[in-house]
Design brief:
Distance between the termini: 34 Å
Order of helices and strands: EEEHHEHEHEHHEHEHEHEEHHEHH
CATH architecture: Alpha-Beta Barrel
CATH class: Alpha Beta
Number of helices: 13
Oligomer: single chain
Strand content: 15-25%
Radius of gyration: 19 Å
CATH topology: TIM Barrel
Helix content: 25-40%
Largest sheet: 8 strands, parallel, barrel
Strand order of the largest sheet: 3-4-5-6-7-8-9-12
Structural class: alpha/beta
Number of strands: 12
Length: 322
């Protein structure tokens, strides 16, 4: 695969086909099982920014605001967001009330701009409406989604999108609003294809698809010998058997497991960019190496013949923003 740039019909600029997710850099031990201190986060951000072209994804609620704050600290040190970098962030519900009404949309954006040290945003998603206390706050006339599009009309964002997990609701929303982009996570991987039909629908509508978490929460990067969790939950015997089947094919073709998992997403023509979470500078280098690793077509033929799940991989997940 080539690590390069791609365009999408509704996004007014090209983006890298790899996007670096910064939720781990907000330090979320309940989700990832480890903490990331400020120094490590800063050196990781700088490693991303040293790439020839970079795309960064963050959110108001990653680590209760720490992800944006740490990014903003580095941006200020460098004199602002580098010209070669595209940044996407997200509007999030109130941490305490779980409400996401138009007033909260405005506050969330104001908080993001302050934390990041910016006066406008390139890509702005509405985040996780399925977890809001009252969905009607989001979807009703004059609600949060209408407010999102109003921000674009006002010039505070170049492109607006929807970032969430629940596919049934997401499919409805992308048919009712003219989003420029979307983010979905853990539902299009070597282990799971639940998002396949929704991706078809979005692609036909010209929506940029940012596919997040190709490693299924880390298992397809670390491997079965080093991880016992898939999509942030304890792995089952059946899931582990599926992982080991992928590992066996990768072993025979001398392909890193992570390279196969990453390129499975990157090679899909519907997907504009694949979002990969990183927690240290070495992972940035590793991601680029995996993106460019030569994988024989024979390996792909075998990998794509393996069985996969179409069930919701996070149906039993306990959600945390810490």
């Amino acid at each position: 695969m080539d690590y390069g740039m791609r365009r999408a019909p509704r996004v007014p600029f090209a983006v890298s086909n790899i996007c670096f997710g910064t939720s781990p850099l907000g330090s979320m031990p309940d989700t990832y099982g480890y903490s990331v201190d400020d120094g490590r986060a800063r050196t990781t951000i700088k490693a991303i920014l040293e790439l020839d072209h970079c795309f960064i994804d963050t959110s108001r609620n990653y680590g209760l605001g720490r992800s944006e704050q740490r990014l903003g600290s580095v941006f200020r040190e460098l004199g602002g967001l580098p010209h070669h970098c595209v940044l996407a962030t997200k509007i999030d519900r109130d941490f305490e009330s779980n409400r996401l009404d138009p007033a909260r949309v405005r506050r969330s954006v104001e908080e993001s701009l302050e934390a990041l040290g910016l006066d406008r945003l390139q890509v702005l998603h509405l985040h996780d409406p399925e977890h809001c206390a009252d969905l009607s706050d989001v979807t009703k006339e004059g609600g949060a989604l209408d407010e999102l599009f109003r921000l674009k009309e006002e010039g505070l964002a170049d492109a607006v999108g929807l970032a969430m997990g629940d596919l049934s609701l997401m499919t409805e929303l992308i048919r009712d609003w003219d989003f420029d982009a979307l983010v979905n996570h853990n539902r299009f991987t070597l282990l799971n294809r639940q998002a396949d039909n929704m991706f078809n629908d979005a692609h036909e509508r010209g929506i940029a698809i940012f596919n997040a978490a190709p490693y299924a929460g880390g298992m397809l990067a670390k491997g079965s010998a080093n991880s016992k969790r898939i999509t942030y939950q304890d792995v089952t015997d059946d899931q582990m058997a599926s992982v080991r089947a992928i590992e066996e094919i990768c072993r025979r073709y001398d392909v890193p497991l992570g390279a196969a998992a990453l390129q499975f997403s990157m090679r899909d023509v519907r997907i504009t960019s694949t979002i990969v979470g990183v927690s240290m500078p070495a992972r940035v280098t590793q991601t680029v190496n995996w993106a460019e690793w030569p994988i024989p077509e024979e390996a792909w033929e075998e990998l794509l013949c393996l069985p996969f799940s179409t069930e919701d991989p996070e149906a039993n997940r306990t959600y945390s923003i810490c």
